[in-house]
TrEMBL record:
CDD domains: Nitro_FMN_reductase. The keyword DNA repair does not apply. The lineage of its organism: Bacteria, Pseudomonadati, Planctomycetota, Planctomycetia, Pirellulales. This is Malonic semialdehyde reductase. It comes from the Bacteria. It holds the Pfam family Nitroreductase. It comes from Rubripirellula obstinata.
Length: 314
């Protein structure tokens, strides 16, 4: 048995030990430890399902499924416990693609290698011209902050927002948590809520997508803070490139608590914004992406040379 579980057992045997154990686990354990599943929201349970299913699947790639089968059986049980609670809450698991994926995966628990083979596809070939085209595409994106007089109509903007969120949700996330939440703002009176906290180019942008992260999915945030922001950044970058691919201009704008808390007036604006838009406290704000047809593509702020960035190539 692992030292961690032995220690856990010992603590639980102490007077008041169960509570202490729960507190310690919540503080130290991160999402690995799923005490009190019943007390968790359905969003958290689904994220636990994704996390554990991903760990089970990964065991095949790391070739340790057999040697650590007990660990993976426990993960499968956790998934089943989550499913049970969700069903009791009348949650339709068939409506959630990630639950369906996890359900299929654990249905193949004793035949995982075949599951992986059946659901995999052939790798692509390296094509230098494609690689060069992608690099040129990445280079051609600029942060745009001045918007053209003529803009896509509401229908088109809604479609573009859809493409961006679709691209975002295919970004990788630590532990397959999938913690993103988006608020799409296009009505002038809603964008106006940002006055006093974000720059004019945000308020005047035809479309804004506010990116938030469900911090409950990171367990004890102290342990996973970096992952939350890295996960957000990966998704935001996919959104930015999706909008760029639609021929629109985009600006990624910082909108995290360090900046929000830097001035008392920001806090007042932020409180009003979250209240008006019904954004819950468990959502951590990261960025506001401004999108629209730009008046012009600004000059390239040149980049540091590859040779100066690369410390070693051995
Ligand atoms: C995390 C992050 C936060 C940013 N925040 C802002 C912001 O609040 N306001 C703004 O005008 N630009 C913001 N930007 C855009 C940068 O200023 C811009 O990417 C940088 O100057 C390089 O220009 P380029 O994007 O055209 O290559 C941000 C970019 C990132 C990645």
């Amino acid at each position: 048995m692992h030292l961690k579980s032995q220690l856990g057992r010992l603590i639980k045997q102490l007077p008041g030990g169960k509570k202490l154990h729960a507190t310690l686990k919540a503080r130290l354990g991160g999402v690995d430890d799923y005490l009190n599943l019943d007390g968790r929201s359905s969003d958290e349970l689904l994220s636990v399902v994704r996390h554990e299913a991903h760990r089970i699947e990964k065991s095949i790639y790391n070739d340790n499924f057999e040697s650590k089968k007990e660990v993976y059986e426990k993960k499968r049980d956790t998934i089943e416990d989550c499913f049970k609670i969700l069903r009791q809450r009348d949650f339709d698991l068939g409506e959630d693609p990630t639950a369906v994926w996890a359900e299929n995966l654990i249905a193949s628990f004793n035949n995982l290698e075949n599951y992986v083979l059946d659901h995999s596809r052939e790798a692509a070939q390296y094509r230098p011209e494609r690689a060069a085209a992608f690099a040129a595409f990445a280079r051609s994106r600029r942060s745009c902050r001045v918007w053209a007089d003529e803009q896509p109509d509401d229908q088109e903007l809604a479609e573009i927002a859809g493409h961006m969120i679709d691209a975002a949700r295919w970004a990788p996330t630590s532990g397959n948590r999938q913690p993103w939440r988006f608020v799409v703002l296009s009505k002038p009176e809603r964008k106006e809520l940002l006055r006093g906290i974000k720059e004019q180019h945000c308020i005047s942008a035809p479309l804004l997508i506010w990116v938030l992260m469900d911090k409950r999915l990171y367990g004890a945030l102290g342990n996973n803070e970096c992952s939350l922001f890295i996960d957000a950044g990966a998704a935001i970058m996919q959104m930015v490139l999706a909008a760029h691919d639609c021929g629109l201009g985009v600006c990624w704008n910082h909108f995290a608590l360090d900046m929000i808390r830097s001035r008392p007036s920001n806090m007042v604006v932020y409180d009003r914004l979250t209240r008006e838009l019904g954004v819950d406290d468990h959502l951590e704000s990261v960025a506001i992406v401004a999108i629209g047809r730009p008046k012009f593509i600004p000059p390239e702020p040149q980049r540091v040379k590859i040779s100066d960035l690369t410390l070693a190539w051995e």
